[in-house]
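DM from R.C. (forwarded with permission)

"hey, sorry to bug you on a friday — could you get me a structure for this? deadline for the figure draft is monday and I only need the backbone to look sensible"
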Amino acid sequence: ENIVAKYDNPDVVGFSTVIWNYQLNIAVAKQIKNKFKNCFIVFGGPCIENNDKIFKEHPYIDMTVYGEGEQVFKDLLLSRLKNVTDWGKFAINRIIYGGKNNESYSQ
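My reply, with the result:
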C-alpha cells in the first residue's frame, strides 16, 4: 500500500522481475490495477517466460516482455504516447499481451 500511495494516476508501470521480487511485484501490480483501472501493467525480466500463463493467473497484467527488454519497453512507451492500442501492429518481437476475453497474443 505504501508503494501504490506514491503513484498519481500512472499511465504505464513496468516491473523488472527476478525470483526474489516476483511475489512483491505481483502484489503491487494488483493494487495498482485496482486503484488505477486504466494503468497499463508490463512485466519483464528473467522470470518472464514466452507463454501466456501469467495472464491466466494474473489478469491485471497487460503485457509481458521476454528476453532483452530495454528497447522493447522504450518502443512500448513511445507507442503509448502515439495512442497505439492495437498491439498486433506493434512491430517488435518478444512481447505477449492479453486480450479482452482472456486470450493472449505473442509476437
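R.C.: lifesaver. The helical segments are 2-5, 22-35, 53-57, 70-81.
me: no worries. Residues 67 and 94 are 7 Å apart (CA to CA).
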